[in-house]
Amino acid sequence: MSVPGRVPRPPRRGLRTAVPTGVATALAVTAHVLAGGTARPATVALALLVAAVPAWLLTARERGWLAISAAQLGLQLVVHGVLAQADPAPHVHLVPHDLMLHAHVLAALLAAAVLRLGERRAWAVARRLSARVAAWWRRLAAGVPPVAGPASPRLARTSRPGALRLLLRHSRALRGPPPLPA
User: Fold this and answer.
1) What is the per-residue pLDDT across 31-85, written as a single tens digit (0 to 9) for each?
2) I need a labelling partner for 178 at 20 to 30 A (CA). Which of 12, 82, 128, 165 fits?
């Protein structure tokens, strides 16, 4: 439960840890295999575990795009390191190291852009839920019985102007016939 004046708890922290860990691991394993390396299931599981620890620590609060992209790059490099250490023949790699680094950076930036959208939405939901619970507690503490919300989520949105209304809010409605020429 949320207490008024406190920051909301991280929404579904386990899921928010699993998604960036899975994305970083999948991208790093795919790049590693395409570069000529091998990816045994035990090694991939170890890489997931190693990447999950810093990802769990980073999901304690909302992060911005820069932090998410840096975390993605770091997680991918950690997974790449685990895979490279487990690969018995490092000379098998077909891709030069600088190209591999550029590929990881590009993948991290693209993944971070997508993950930031999800991060922003998850925290927006957490803030709205926290505000509702806080309002409910304030009403309860004041001795006022809590009011049930609208039956439908669509009914709650009617108080805000719709998209068409926002588009037309500066237009003038002209009624009647056009003015006669003078």
Assistant:
1) 888 877 788 899 889 988 888 888 888 888 888 888 888 888 888 888 888 888 8
2) 165
DSSP 173: P
Q: What does pTM read for this prediction?
A: 0.56
DSSP codes, 38-100: ---HHHHHHHHHHHHHHHHHHTTS---HHHHHHHHHHHHHHHHHHHHHH-S-GGG--S-HHHH
Measured CA distances, 110 to 21, 57, 120, 132, 164 (Å): 15, 22, 16, 34, 33
Contact call for residues 24 and 111 (beta carbons, < 8 A): yes
- Per domain, the residue ranges of the chain are 13-139
CA distance 147 to 139: 9
